[in-house]
Each structure stands twice: as C-alpha cells, then as structure tokens.
Design a protein that fits this description.
By secondary structure, the chain is of the alpha/beta class. Helix content is 32%, strand content 15%. 51% of the residues are buried. The protein binds flavin mononucleotide.
Length: 362
C-alpha cells in the first residue's frame, strides 16, 4: 500500500514524499510585483514539502490583478526570485512556479486597461486594488489576433521561471481565472474556434500547455484545474464531460502532473453542489494525479493508499505548519492559521513567524 512518505516521480521531478504545498497567494511582493527577501525565508521554511507549488504569479501586467503578487515578466522579478529557489534547494526542497492570468478578475485600477476574458462578461462582486476593493468592470472578449501574444507571454514567463531556478511550472487553469473563463460555459459564449463545443473551450488550455511545455519541458509542466463548483462566477453545466476531455488531452502532452482543486458540499475553502469529478478523471488521466481541498492528514493517507490520488496538496495547513510533513510523519498536532487578514498582509506577521513543532518543549 502506498504511503504519503513513499517517493514519487512526477515527470522530471523526484519527490521524496507525497505531501505537496498547494499554491497560496500571500501578497508579500512589491507594488511592482517583485519578490521580496521575506519570501526567501517563507519558502525556505517549507522546503520539507514533497514539492512546493508557488503562489500564483502573474505572467503580465494585463494578467495581474492581485496587489503585491510577485510576477514573471521582468528581469528584476527574475533576479528577485533567484534567492527564493536557491534557499529552497539549499534546504533540500523543490519548487515549481504557478503562472497566472486573472482575465476578467483584474480590475483596471491594477492593470491600466479593460480586462480580457473569453467573452464580454463581468465578474461578480469587487476586485482587489491598491485603493481597496472596487466593483469589477466588464471584460472584453479576447480577440483571435491577441491569442499568439498571450501564448508568448505564458512561454516567456515559463522560461523566466526556469531561468530563476524553479524546477518547473504550473499553469493556473483553475478558480475562475482566464483559462477557466474559457473552459467553462457560464463565461465562454464565443462562437469561434475557442467557444461552443468542449473541444473549442479547451483549446486555449491546450495551446497554453503546449507553449509552456515547449518552453519549460513537458516533464516540468503541470496544470491545476478546479472541475466542480462555482468560483469567481465561473461554473460549467457538464463538468464531467469537459474536464475528462481536458485531462485526456493533457495526458497526451505528457505533463509532469495534474492537480485538481475540488470542493466538497461542505467545503471550508469553497463549497460545491456538484460532485467531485476526480474519480472519473483518475481513469481518463494516466499520469500523476494530485488532489487538493479540505484534506486532513488521515484522509490524505487514505486517498493515496486507495489509489485515488498519487499525492495530496495542502493549502491552509502549510500557512501555520512550515514543517507539515514532519508533523504528519510523527503525529504531532497541527497549528491553526491566524486571522484571514494576516494571509494577505504584507508583513512578517502571520507569514514567517510560525515555528516548527518543538517536541522537546511539548
Ligand atoms: C490564503 C490562500 C491563498 C490561495 N492562493 C491560491 C493561489 O495563489 N493559487 C491557487 O491555485 N489556489 C490558491 N488558493 C487555494 C489553495 O491552493 C487550496 O486549493 C485551498 O486552500 C484548499 O486546500 P486546503 O483545504 O488544503 O487549504 C489559496 C488559498 C488560500 C487559503
């Protein structure tokens, strides 16, 4: 029976355990989206993860809607990421970069231009800006002649991540951001080759994945999807058909792993009335499958032992437990993360001040 502490080969990545750190936006970059020194310490502390998936990191100004998120489109950003990857490697860890374009969830106060999406739609609620939250504005449909430029932005960001020392990249195609806005039919009303049928709605995801795989190597490229439930106003009427197709096609590209963030009915991050699609995707996708969302260590061990997943990624547990794999290995108690305000604040507090478990003191 496979345990969380059995090694795992995911493409070119050799993972010593199956407890992965899920991507967590922490907003500790600069206003110019440059990584800061405190991020070096934060990621170093978490190097015991089988693999760290970095916080979502914009590929371009147009894609950057989260204040203080560190990006991948300038030389200054690449240079400031290097100490992060170096620290993780020196501590014996591995880290891939999550590449992000937020699409219609970018407020113009952040990017200086009208956001783009699959179609002219408006995200529900309010978007983040440096001046506080403001109602979203209507996005315009991405033009066909803009798609090559978008693919080039993804490829450049992937190359920049590799140049910055990352072991690979993850395409953020989940959670209602640009690629997900193309995938799911609540936000994709196009009538061209990128809309309508499942094949057409998955086209952008697959083109981005091929472009990134060409830049970083398919065996260092991963993809994150969120098949079930609504997020940022994005939902699909038939997630099983759509995401099974997407998973099969991603398999053909030979990506290192596929990660699914799935909500449960009573999920504490996001809930969903739609059932998880992962049991079906597990059969359609032959590569390494990582599951995420509300897993306890016990449930994670059970899922891996039962073959439902090859690994589990943990999000919130890694906020307050930098040494999460060691705690799970020894059955030490888990610390609880502090108030949500500290998740996205800019200081050290609630960020690098969670200690490792001290067995002697306990
Ligand atoms: C503070 C915070 C930031 C997050 N940032 C990201 C992100 O940058 N990219 C992403 O794909 N998911 C992000 N998520 C979602 C997590 O990766 C994960 O899917 C979610 O927390 C559920 O997993 P968990 O129950 O183990 O926490 C974030 C979640 C939290 C709580």
């Amino acid at each position: 029976m496979t345990s969380l502490f059995d090694p795992l080969a995911a493409g070119a990545l050799a993972l010593p355990n199956r407890i992965l750190m899920a991507p967590l936006t922490r907003a500790r970059g600069t206003r110019g989206h440059v990584p800061t020194p405190r991020m070096v310490e934060y990621y170093r502390q978490r190097a015991g993860a089988g693999l760290i998936i970095s916080e979502a990191s914009p590929i371009s100004v147009e894609g950057a809607g989260w204040p203080y998120s560190p990006g991948f489109w300038t030389e200054e950003q690449v240079a400031a990421w290097r100490p992060v990857t170096q620290a993780v490697h020196e501590a014996g860890g591995r880290i891939v970069a999550q590449l992000w374009h937020m699409g219609r969830v970018v407020h113009p106060a952040m990017s200086g231009s009208q956001p783009v999406s699959a179609s002219a739609t408006t995200a529900p609620g309010e978007g983040h800006t440096y001046e506080g939250k403001q109602p979203y504005v209507e996005a315009r449909a991405l033009r066909l002649d803009e798609i090559p430029g978008l693919l080039a932005d993804y490829a450049t960001a992937a190359r920049n991540a590799i140049r910055a020392g990352f072991d690979g990249v993850q395409i953020h195609a989940a959670n209602g951001y640009l690629i997900d806005q193309f995938l799911r039919d609540s936000t994709n009303h196009r009538t061209d080759a990128y809309g309508g049928s499942i094949e057409n709605r998955a086209r952008l995801l697959l083109e981005v994945t091929r472009a990134v795989a060409d830049a970083a190597g398919a065996d260092r490229t991963s993809v994150r999807l969120s098949p079930n439930g609504e997020v940022n106003g994005v939902v699909d009427s038939d997630p099983e058909a759509l995401f099974t197709y997407a998973a099969r096609e991603l398999d053909k590209i030979g990506i290192a792993f596929l990660e699914l963030r799935e909500a449960r009915v009573s999920g504490t991050f996001l809930g969903s009335a739609q059932p998880p699609v992962s049991p079906v995707i597990r059969r359609a996708f032959k590569g390494v499958l990582v599951l995420n969302g509300d897993y306890t260590p016990e449930e994670a061990a059970e899922a891996v032992a039962a073959g439902k997943a090859d690994a589990i990624s943990f999000g919130r547990p890694f906020i307050a437990n930098p040494d999460l794999p060691e705690r799970i290995r020894h059955g030490f108690p888990l610390a609880q993360p502090g108030a949500m305000a500290s998740w996205y604040s800019q200081g050290d507090e609630g960020y690098v001040d969670y200690p490792r478990y001290d067995a002697a003191a306990a």
